[in-house]
Design goal:
Shape: globular
Helix content: under 10%
Strand order of the largest sheet: 2-10-9-4-5-6
Low-confidence stretches: none
Largest sheet: 6 strands, mixed
Strand content: over 45%
Number of strands: 10
Oligomer: single chain
Distance between the termini: 39 Å
Number of helices: 0
Order of helices and strands: EEEEEEEEEE
Radius of gyration: 13 Å
């Protein structure tokens, strides 16, 4: 099973940027569509973006289109999420996972807090 470690979160002012990383272990990483998800306080986890196996195709939820960019580096077994023009409502714990995600595994996530 692929193990995932997210990093890069932090506290940032509205309008600022952060770049999240997700390091995956396991040789099968390159076989999977990968995604980013987030969970805000008191809310259910939601989909943010996903990227194809080749990296040539991406998809975003409407609220982040034009602001977030997902990418992957298969040589490094890493998925990234570049987040620009951050808004207070982007505050959440961010997770990466396979897409669609399995029901039985999530990493620890990384906290993103956007101050308004």
């Amino acid at each position: 099973q692929v193990q995932l470690v997210e990093s890069g979160g932090g506290l940032v002012q509205a309008g600022g940027s952060l770049r999240l990383s997700c390091a995956a272990s396991g040789r099968t990483f390159s076989r999977y569509v990968m995604g980013w998800f987030r969970q805000a306080p008191g809310k259910e986890r939601e989909f943010v973006a996903h990227i194809s196996v080749s990296g040539g195709s991406t998809y975003y939820t409407d609220s982040v289109k034009g602001r977030f960019t997902i990418s992957r580096d298969s040589d490094k077994n890493t998925v990234y999420l570049q987040m620009n023009s951050l808004k207070h409502e982007d505050t959440a714990v961010y997770y990466c996972n396979r897409f669609p995600p399995p029901s039985d595994y999530w990493g620890q996530g990384t906290q993103v807090t956007v101050s308004s």
